[in-house]
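User: Teach me something about this protein's shape.
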Amino acid sequence: MQGCDASVLLDGSATGPGEQQAPPNLTLRPSAFKAINDIRDRLERECRGAVVSCSDILALAARDSVVASGGPEYRVPLGRRDSPRFATAQDVLSVLPPPSSNVPSLLDVLRKIGLDATDLVALSGGHTVGLGHCTSFDDRLFPRPDPTMSPDFLGRLKRTCPAKGTDARTVLDVRTPNVFDNKYYVNLVNREGLFVSDQDLFTNATTRPIVERFARSQRDFFQQFGVSMVKMGQIKVLTGDQGQVRRNCSARNSGTADGLQWSSLVQTVVDAAAEGLGF
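Assistant: First, the predicted structure itself:
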């Protein structure tokens, strides 16, 4: 919410609940937070000190998860530092767009952080893997079906979510739910996007040509996804004497010492591209 500073990993405190307790983040898995801390502990042992920030670990883990699922490999610029403060629950609600958002509202949010329509479509392709809760899309089913949804897809969703408020989940990508590929865009062309924020990418005239291009070419999608992830990973980063390198990703360091053993530098998008970000 404040930039790429790993603030979402922080537990709440006496000042209030952390970002994890905000409604949009309640589906984040505790096992994922543990995995990040386990990686941080191993890195501290290997590096003999707190050298790698939790923010950098998150960026690298995201890339490696994409690769492990069949997606593209891309360079990850490093050197971020961690925020000692988390955003408030109200900040999360006011900044994080809900799955009911349409393209104009999504673009309004992204323009403020330096991302454009191509980035929006490419990053939305992350929905080629994962699950969605009925409560995130059942407004498209009840009381009247969303006309942008194919009848067959509507029927499948109603079997999973037979009434509004059903506590159930379904895959985000009906074709290849466990593989990182371009089938998400094929779904949109066939009116099988799960969320409003998905399907409106195909309905909207600005983003539709980008969806169609990615549906035709997985190579184009993979290349742009890497570029857009690098751009997103450099939003409002903390570097130099800003922030800290947390010894525990779930809690800010006590005192003022952060344990960083050398100065940090975040590469720019241009630097990363010059080093071979293009595939």
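Now, about its shape. The CA atoms of residues 50 and 268 lie 24 Å apart. The beta strands are 131-133, 169-171. If you'd like, I can walk through any region in more detail.
User: That's plenty for now, thanks!
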